[in-house]
Design a protein that fits this description.
heterodimer, A: 119 residues, mainly beta, four-stranded antiparallel β-sheet, 50% strand, globular, B: 115 residues, six-stranded mixed β-sheet, 12 strands
Chain lengths: 119, 115
């Protein structure tokens, strides 16, 4: 158990809908990262937050957004869902990485993931 | 641009055999970090090791060992005396300390250890 929690574990929805995925980092970790794992794209970094602020952006679609709250939990919002958004979404956390240049050099501990199925 | 290649898509071995998973990376940075993660059938990603580019010492942790060679841009992972519980997908990953705004995973190697 990494100490990172994600809810829900599974989510089934329809095209065009909007969903919110939630992540609670390990106690003491200030950084949260979101990843998408799909069969055709593999594991891709989406976005990173540090202590409430966006720090780095990867291959995140405009239909997707995220935020980190004062209690450090994070939410990933996916809207206007398409069939191709079906994937496993992981959240990870790390202690530091407040500096953008070193955003990914700390060890990231991953949550169990949320499996999203868009029908 | 940073890139990670894991040329072995799938490997099958019989229990107690040794197996090496290859990882080749590309980066223009002189300071970078390499990682290995394990994804068992249950789906979670489990951290195995983090190594920075200035530390080329090989590392051993129980049945696991890692061989980092900057000359060939490789960070290979060996499991000695494999067990069925080692069956998983293994990902190598790279982060660049100065240029990178990203964390790049390789495509993964699926290891099946047969009893």
């Amino acid at each position: 158990d990494s100490g990172v929690t994600q809810t829900p574990k599974h989510l089934i929805t329809a095209t065009g809908q909007r969903v919110t995925l939630r992540c609670s980092p390990r106690s003491g970790d200030l950084s949260v990262y979101w990843y998408q794992q799909s069969l055709d794209q593999g594991l891709q970094f989406l976005i990173q937050y540090y202590n409430g602020e966006e720090r780095a952006k990867g291959n995140i679609l405009e239909r997707f957004s995220a935020q980190q709250f004062p209690d450090l939990h994070s939410e990933l919002n996916l809207s206007s869902l398409e069939l191709g958004d079906s994937a496993l979404y992981f959240c990870a956390s790390s202690v530091r990485s407040g500096q953008a240049d070193f955003a990914f050099t700390d060890t990231q501990y991953f949550g169990p993931g949320t499996r999203l199925t868009v029908l | 641009a940073q890139k990670v290649t894991q040329a072995q898509t799938e490997i099958s071995v019989v229990e107690k055999e040794d197996v090496t998973l290859d990882c080749v990376y590309e980066t223009r940075d002189t300071t970078y970090y390499l990682f290995w993660y394990k994804q068992p059938p249950s789906g979670e990603l489990v951290f195995l090791i983090r190594r920075n580019s200035f530390d080329e010492q090989n590392e051993i942790s129980g049945r696991y060992s890692w061989n980092f060679q900057k000359s060939t841009s490789s960070f290979n992972f060996t499991i000695t005396a494999s067990q069925v519980v080692d069956s998983a997908v293994y990902f190598c990953a790279l982060s660049e300390a100065m240029r990178g705004q990203n964390f790049v995973f390789g495509p993964g190697t699926r290891l099946s250890v047969l009893p």
